[in-house]
């Protein structure tokens, strides 16, 4: 293989990884105030399609089966019921992102600081 082709492939791989698998605290903290608000979180995470990743049957909602399958994959022990805020048996995207955010907001103040971030997965958010 020619050298420039190899380089092109390497670049393509590394840029994909940087975007999808290695978000950093400062990427999400778009206003740079050292905390990640819900709005900052929603703005990034909804762009990544995390909700549709969990909606494995593509019906636009996350049910408790889909939730427990992914929770098992991620090795987390989360209760479905508190996430389903309106109690209709499904998670819409708002309930989903709220639940995700709240699960890692250890002191419940509505902001993620660096230590909340560090707890969210092994190496940043989705690299669990
Ligand atoms: Ca911020
Ligand atoms: Ca579904
Ligand atoms: Ca619901
Ligand atoms: Ca917090």
TrEMBL record:
Recorded superkingdom: Bacteria
Keyword terms, alphabetized: Signal
First and last residue of the signal peptide: 1-20
PROSITE patterns recorded: EF_HAND_1
The UniProt record lists the keyword Signal: yes
Pfam families in the record: EF-hand_5
Entry-linked InterPro entries: EF-hand-dom_pair (IPR011992), EF_Hand_1_Ca_BS (IPR018247), EF_hand_dom (IPR002048)
GO MF terms held by the record: calcium ion binding
Record domain EF-hand: where: 24-41, 55-70
Record carries keyword ATP-binding: no
Name used for this protein in its record: EF hand
Species of the source: Kushneria avicenniae
């Amino acid at each position: 293989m020619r050298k420039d082709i190899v380089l092109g492939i390497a670049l393509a791989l590394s840029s994909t990884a940087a975007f999808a698998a290695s978000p950093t605290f400062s990427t999400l903290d778009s206003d740079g105030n050292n905390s990640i608000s819900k709005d900052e979180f929603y703005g990034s995470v909804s762009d990544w399609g995390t909700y549709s990743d969990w909606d494995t049957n593509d019906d636009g909602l996350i049910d408790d089966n889909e939730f427990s399958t992914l929770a098992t994959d991620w090795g987390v022990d989360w209760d479905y019921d508190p996430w389903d805020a309106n109690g209709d048996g499904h998670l819409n995207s708002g309930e989903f992102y709220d639940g995700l955010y709240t699960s890692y907001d250890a002191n419940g103040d509505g902001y993620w600081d660096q230590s909340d971030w560090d707890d969210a997965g092994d190496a940043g958010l989705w690299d669990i």
